[in-house]
Amino acid sequence: MAVDEKKSGAEGKVWGLCKMPFWQSSNGSSSSSSSMQNNNNYNSSNNNNSSSHVYQQNQSQQVMGRSSVVNSSNVSSMAKSLLPTRRRLRLDPSTKLFFPYEPGKQVRSAISIKNTSKSHVAFKFQTTAPKSCYMRPPGGILAPGESLIATVFKFVEPPENNERPTDQKSKVKFKIMSLKVKGEMDYVPELFDEQKDQVAVEQILRVVFLDPEHPSPALDKLKRQLAEADAALEARKKPPEDTGPRIVGEGLVIDEWVRH
């Protein structure tokens, strides 16, 4: 009996030992398969995330590239706008038009205009008071290095209460514009309308009155320039040896300058 109990106990142990590996191997295989599946899912997720990250990075680089091109273009246009406009003409006086102060009369001023560029240049005047001002010539074309003296005519309004102010200033202003043209041609005002994007504002001139009874350097200079302008006008009236600027007419009305 003791022997049988030992046998049965040994057999039970053997059976238990035989059963143990079966369950453990089953659990091990299921856990390993589960682990492999998780690894595959993780790797797939990583691959998807990696692809998505690369795509987003490429997209952001493209956007940054486009924005940098736009920004560089904006910076370039801004830099150009900040640069001073290169003058084609030299004016004398450079910022003012001097007139003798004679209320109730038409008076004259003069300004020297010289083309300092290497190409032919058209010029044109505008004024805020076209009904009381006109210029001779109102526009023209100058060859490189060529110059002329333009005469400006203005009617002086009588002052209120018959007062005679000193250093009388006027609200009237003049604007001179320039346009580069291709060689010699006849001047027509429409040139400035056809090529608006190429037109440059050379200067805005304000009117200053001088007392004709008190000599001054500005008054003396004005008299000299008017004398030169009159001499040039007489020379242009002579038959065709004239090589001066091409002028359409004498004393034409200037275009109105509408200030916004």
3D architecture notes:
Helix content is 41%, strand content 27%. It is α+β, with helices and mostly antiparallel strands. The strands form two sheets. Strands 2, 4, 6, 8, 9 and 10 form a six-stranded mixed β-sheet that branches. It has a four-stranded antiparallel β-sheet with strand order 1-3-7-5. Mean pLDDT is 75; it is low at 1-8, 13-32 and 79-84.
Itemize the secondary structure elements and their pairings.
Layout: H1 2-82, E1 89-92, E2 96-100, E3 106-115, E4 120-127, E5 133-136, E6 139-142, E7 147-155, E8 169-181, H2 190-194, E9 200-210, H3 217-237, E10 255-256
Parallel strand pairs: 2-9, 4-10
Antiparallel strand pairs: 1-3, 3-7, 4-6, 4-8, 5-7, 8-9
Short description:
The protein has three helices and ten strands, in the order H-E-E-E-E-E-E-E-E-H-E-H-E.
Question: Main attributes?
Answer:
single chain, 260 residues, alpha+beta, six-stranded mixed β-sheet, four-stranded antiparallel β-sheet, 3 helices, 10 strands, globular
Helicity, in percent? Answer: 40-55%
Q: Strand share of the residues?
A: 25-35%
Distance between the termini: 127 Å
What sequence of helices (H) and strands (E) makes up the elements? HEEEEEEEEHEHE
Protein name: Vesicle-associated protein 4-2
